[in-house]
Amino acid sequence: MALLITNQCINCDVCEQECPNEAITQGEEVFVVDPDRCTECVGHYDQPQCVASCPVICIIVNPDRVEGSDELQAKYRKLMGR
Amino acid sequence: MKAFGDFLHHRQDAVRRVQWVMVAVYFSLLLGPVLAPASALGLVAEAVFWGVWWPLVILSMMVFGQFWCGVLCPDGTVSECASRHGKGAKPTETLRWGWWPLVLFDLVTLFSDASDAHHSSWGTLAAVGGMSVLALATGLWFGRGRRVWCRYLCPAGSVFSLLARCSILHFKVDRAVWDAAPRPAPKPVDCPLLLDVRRLTSNEKCNMCGRCSGHRGAVELSWRKPGSEIEGLKADEVRPWDAVGICFVLIGLSFGGLHWTGDFVAILAVALGLGSAVTMLLVLAAGKGWARLAYGLIPLAGFGLFLGAAEHSLALLDLTILLPWLRGGFVALGLAWSARLGWVLAEGWRGRIVYGAILVVLAFAYLFV
């Protein structure tokens, strides 16, 4: 599953810098996650770094992008060119 | 003004030193009279807390915004420090309930006015010190070096956030400049209150600590027209707890607490009676838009609160002879300011006439009761 940033986001810039996949960018109102680049940090860390670093509770699982760990691993390999 | 905002940003080391001096003075005045009841510390504490701090802080909120909170408040300093070393939990939905500050303010005010805590060192310790303990506990549990207490719970914040909407200073954010700045930002924006600085348009919760000043070259301390934030208030920016707070607390409870000190039932009756009357008249003036119109009353009600606090100060200084002059000046100013806001916020002649009647009744109450 990719992650999703809700409107509770406070635009603090923290998550953008933490994302190892460069999947997070500034959107019109709040930061947005590119679901094609988000691996929930699979391949990099044990837990999503954006969720860990976010000072509020505004990053949830994207209900429109349900992916298993194998798919996330495959996405990670594709992003890394392996 | 920009230079002052940038100074706050760059010289946080100096700000921190001032904050800890404030903490030391605060706890000395809070605990000193209890530990040494025979000393003169009790009188000094009463004069400082209720004679100087309370009226001046009310006035400063209305003119300059919440600088007190962001730069000087001991509770905020203690809570933030605790939060650096505490559990670091994120603020939950329950904690973020918008009515908490108002509920806590009501409880503290009812307790302190009904028990006449102002005149007792133990009463002051319970009313003021109790909040400090809660601020510390909140910091130990929530946030990572943030001021979760100030943002979501502080009782005084319920009134300060109303008064600060009037102020002539604010941290102005140029969103176009913010968005055009190189990405990613060299460092995250530093807001201890966890505000969305990029979309910040209100003084409601901004503690004016200055730490965001200059971020991305888009944030700067600026002047603005008095009351411009209230004039430009959109329907979806109106908070129900603000409207209730203006009618029942800023007007009702403050008035009841001032004139019927020591009588819990009378204070509650005046708060509910006066608050209900103002609310009904606002509904008559603006129908469903009553809550937005309520914001127009903040200047007059704020000065009313200030006068109530100043009355105590003048009594302590034995200068009550000045009270009629002080009342006349501030009520006239509040009346003109609130009338100006009502002219913009109210629609149609009926709305403006009823709103004007509310102002006249309140002005008479502040002048002659």
How large is the radius of gyration of chain B?
A: 21 Å
Flag low-confidence runs of chain A.
none
End-to-end separation of chain A: 21 Å
Topology of chain B as a string of helices (H) and strands (E) = HHHHHHHHHEHEHHHHHHH
Mean pLDDT of chain B: 93
What is the helix content of chain B?
Answer: 55-70%
Note the total helix count of chain B.
17
- Structural class from helices and strands of chain B? mainly alpha
Describe the structure.
- The complex is a heterodimer of chains A (82) and B (369).
- Chain A is α+β, with helices and mostly antiparallel strands.
- Chain A contains three helices and four strands.
- In chain A, a hairpin with a 4-residue loop joins strand 2 (24-26) and strand 3.
- The model of chain B has no long low-confidence stretch (mean pLDDT 93).
- Chain B has helices spanning 2-10, 12-35, 41-64, 67-72, 74-85, 100-114, 121-141, 148-152, 155-163, 175-180, 228-231, 240-259, 264-286, 290-294, 298-316, 323-345, 348-368; strands at 169-173, 219-223.
- Chain B has 17 helices and two strands.
- Chain B is an all-alpha fold and 369 residues long.
- Chain B has two domains: 2-164, no CATH class; 237-368, no CATH class.
- At the A-B interface, helix 1 of A face loops of B.
Map the helices and strands.
The complex is a heterodimer of chains A (82) and B (369).
Chain A: E1 3-5, H1 14-18, E2 24-26, E3 31-33, H2 49-53, E4 59-61, H3 69-80
Antiparallel strand pairs in A: 1-4, 2-3
Chain B: H1 2-10, H2 12-35, H3 41-64, H4 67-72, H5 74-85, H6 100-114, H7 121-141, H8 148-152, H9 155-163, E1 169-173, H10 175-180, E2 219-223, H11 228-231, H12 240-259, H13 264-286, H14 290-294, H15 298-316, H16 323-345, H17 348-368
Antiparallel strand pairs in B: 1-2
